[in-house]
Design goal:
The protein is 73% helix and 2% strand. By secondary structure, it is mainly α. The protein has a two-stranded antiparallel ribbon. It starts with a helix and ends in a 9-residue tail after the last helix.
Length: 286
């Protein structure tokens, strides 16, 4: 085995893992606060991709400078989606909320297909690469990691240092008690759904700077998000970040030993093993 190839693949996997972790963090945040499995997560990721594409190609805005617009768009989209599709069934059995978010998934895919078609798209973005011998780290990956870490830090600062963030955590821990303390749980839940959507769309925007994509790219990424969330521990944002790094490393390193087409099979083997031997995930409670 070529040691330099292993190092290069590990660096690629590590950088990709941070973005995967950010992507899964949105899914696990929503579940952790309101116990809703959001099947609309994939289309939200794709919306982030196409938002940055439109802002870049039609308005000439640098993809990274377009991220604040993507954040606002994601927050509004998430809050509106919550009130339209989730709020009325928030206390219903889990299957009902699952079907509600699946409906959102289907409607968004249909709308995005009508607007953008299923043709492959991509951003034309080049940044200086960092080279050490035969190892090359693309500048776009370094920037993606830095932004993923910045967004993660901002999320934790919001949840632990602000009054609104503490209200969301209170609602997540005990909604009835939080309401007795005067917290408006409806808006806390809506804001949580909005933040989860923001994380999905920002991760989609970052992935758009790394790979080509289509309207249908969200399906595979949504499935990968579920694997990462289960691996890290459902409802645990830190676990999602760790799970993303693990999956990113596995995805890159395993391509040294097996064809790329086998990698998803390997990931799902890991997924099944986690369910069998540690169903609460790496950072979940035993």
């Amino acid at each position: 085995m070529n040691f330099e190839v292993l190092i290069a693949s590990s660096i690629d996997g590590l950088t990709l893992g941070f973005v995967f972790g950010l992507m899964a963090m949105g899914l696990t945040l929503i579940f952790g606060v309101m116990k809703v499995i959001n099947l609309g997560h994939g289309p939200f990721i794709v919306m982030g991709m196409f938002a940055v594409l439109v802002l870049s190609q039609n308005l000439g805005i640098n993809p990274y400078l377009a991220l604040p617009i993507v954040i606002v768009l994601g927050l509004v989209t998430g809050v509106v989606t919550y009130f339209v599709a989730v709020h009325r069934v928030i206390n219903a059995p889990e299957l009902t909320t699952l079907l509600a978010t699946f409906s959102v998934n289907m409607m968004l895919i249909g709308a995005l297909t009508i607007i953008f078609s299923t043709s492959p798209r991509g951003l034309s973005l080049e940044l200086p690469a960092f080279r050490a011998g035969t190892i090359t780290v693309l500048g776009t990956r370094v920037v993606a990691v830095l932004i993923a870490l910045l967004v993660t830090g901002a999320l934790y600062a919001f949840l632990y240092r602000t009054h609104i963030g503490k209200s969301i955590r209170a609602v997540a821990n005990n909604r009835s008690a939080a309401e007795l303390m005067g917290i408006n749980s409806t808006w806390a839940l809506a804001l949580s759904f909005g933040i989860g959507t923001v994380l999905a769309m920002v991760s989609g925007a970052l992935l758009a700077t790394l790979f080509g994509f289509t309207v249908l790219s969200g399906g595979g990424l949504e499935t990968k998000s579920f694997v990462i969330v289960v691996l890290g521990g459902l409802g645990n944002p830190t676990g999602a970040l760790l799970g993303g790094i693990v999956i990113g490393l596995l995805e890159s390193i395993t391509t040294i030993f097996m064809p790329v087409s086998y990698v998803p099979v390997f990931e799902f083997v890991v997924f099944i093993l986690i369910l069998l031997f540690r169903p609460n995930g790496l950072l979940g409670a035993r």
